[in-house]
């Protein structure tokens, strides 16, 4: 089927009205004095010349059947298209610098929802633009991990909620495309694989294992946990009161950085909590009117596994002798 100049102009008008949306292959505002390729929602691809961060003419159009309308063709056969510039009074959705938004979504295994059988390339959408929205976190450090294990996805926002109306490094979305799976250990830093090994133990811990961890925990390990926080917070440029005991703390960083291993410490403690509940029920806890807490051996086991999280998750914060102290209970568990 032949595509006429009128057909192309109709598509360009539909872009201006928003009936057809375009997604650029890169942020046009960051790629000036070059060409930007836009994928249209009608199946076309339109390459434009991008100067000073603004649309400066069509370079070529690729039709769904693979035919290419290049600059020479447009100049000779479609002069109105070749000379086309968007109306400056119209907010041109695509050529008007719609940024490609990518980020991350973590779906826990116990509540995977629509991500249960998802595959790369799938599009996940809400039926309307009402809450609950699909939340896309900007970076791995922004991803909230309340439960573990789960599946981590890198996604592209297809339709964002407008206006966003919030503060924070995330995008409220109606529709996203799943780009690829990401190994979840990256949520816990450069040594995240070791942190996940600890999580696997924490979530299935038995009372016998908890007793072993308790009996082999080094008496200086708690102080090293606290020292680790002080050292890390200093590296982050965050102030903490000198001498403050931070042993057993699962999150202390300001902003996006909860701890040097992200949500790793809170998940380790949470894993032991669930194991204790499963193995010993209420006997694993004490409580008052305001809170509930683990008792021995579970409390000590949680501390010992957090020791290992520090030593294996951020080894550079400690010297070799300190790491051995932090790993004493962990190694005893393996050897027992």
Detail the topology: elements first, then pairings.
Blueprint: H1 5-17, E1 22-24, E2 34-40, E3 45-51, E4 54-62, E5 68-69, H2 71-77, H3 79-82, E6 102-108, E7 123-125, E8 134-137, E9 150-160, E10 170-182, H4 192-202, H5 207-216, H6 221-235, H7 264-280, E11 285-287, E12 292-294, H8 298-313, H9 320-335
Antiparallel strand pairs: 1-2, 2-3, 3-4, 4-5, 6-9, 7-10, 8-10, 9-10, 11-12
Describe the structure.
- This protein is an alpha+beta fold.
- The chain has three domains: 5-82, no CATH class; 102-182; 188-335, no CATH class.
- 32% of the residues lie in helices and 21% in strands.
- The strands form three sheets. The chain has a five-stranded antiparallel beta sheet. Strands 6, 7, 8, 9 and 10 form a five-stranded antiparallel beta sheet that branches. Strands 11-12 form a two-stranded antiparallel sheet.
- Strand 2 and strand 3 (45-51) form a beta hairpin.
- The chain is elongated.
């Amino acid at each position: 089927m032949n595509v006429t100049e009128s057909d192309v102009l109709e598509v360009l008008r539909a872009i201006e009205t928003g009936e057809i949306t375009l997604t650029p292959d890169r942020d046009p505002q960051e790629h000036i004095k070059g060409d930007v390729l836009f994928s249209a929602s009608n199946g076309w691809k339109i390459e434009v010349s991008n100067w000073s961060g603004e649309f400066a003419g069509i370079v070529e159009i690729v039709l769904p059947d693979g035919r290419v309308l290049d600059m020479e063709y447009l100049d000779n056969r479609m002069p109105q298209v070749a000379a086309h510039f968007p109306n400056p009074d119209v907010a041109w959705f695509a050529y008007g610098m719609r940024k490609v938004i990518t980020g991350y979504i973590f779906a826990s295994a116990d509540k995977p929802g629509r991500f249960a059988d998802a595959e790369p390339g799938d599009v996940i959408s809400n039926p309307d633009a009402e809450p609950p929205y699909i939340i896309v976190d900007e970076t791995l450090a922004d991803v909230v991990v309340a439960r573990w294990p789960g599946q981590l996805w890198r996604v592209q926002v297809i339709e964002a909620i407008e206006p966003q109306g919030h503060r924070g490094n995330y995008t409220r979305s109606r529709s996203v495309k799943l780009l690829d799976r990401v190994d979840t250990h990256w949520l816990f830093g450069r040594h995240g694989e070791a942190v996940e090994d600890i999580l696997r133990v924490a979530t299935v811990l038995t009372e016998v294992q908890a007793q072993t961890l308790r009996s082999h925990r080094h008496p200086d390990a708690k102080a090293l946990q606290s020292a680790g926080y002080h050292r890390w917070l200093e590296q982050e440029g965050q102030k903490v009161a000198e001498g403050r005991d931070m042993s057993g703390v699962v999150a202390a960083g300001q902003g996006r950085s909860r701890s040097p291993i992200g949500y790793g410490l809170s998940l380790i403690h949470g894993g032991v909590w669930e194991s204790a509940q499963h193995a010993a029920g209420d006997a694993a806890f004490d409580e008052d009117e305001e809170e509930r807490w683990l008792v021995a051996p579970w409390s000590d086991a949680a501390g010992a596994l957090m020791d290992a999280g520090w030593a294996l998750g951020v080894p550079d914060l400690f010297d070799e002798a300190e790491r051995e102290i932090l790993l004493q209970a962990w190694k005893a568990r393996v050897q027992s």
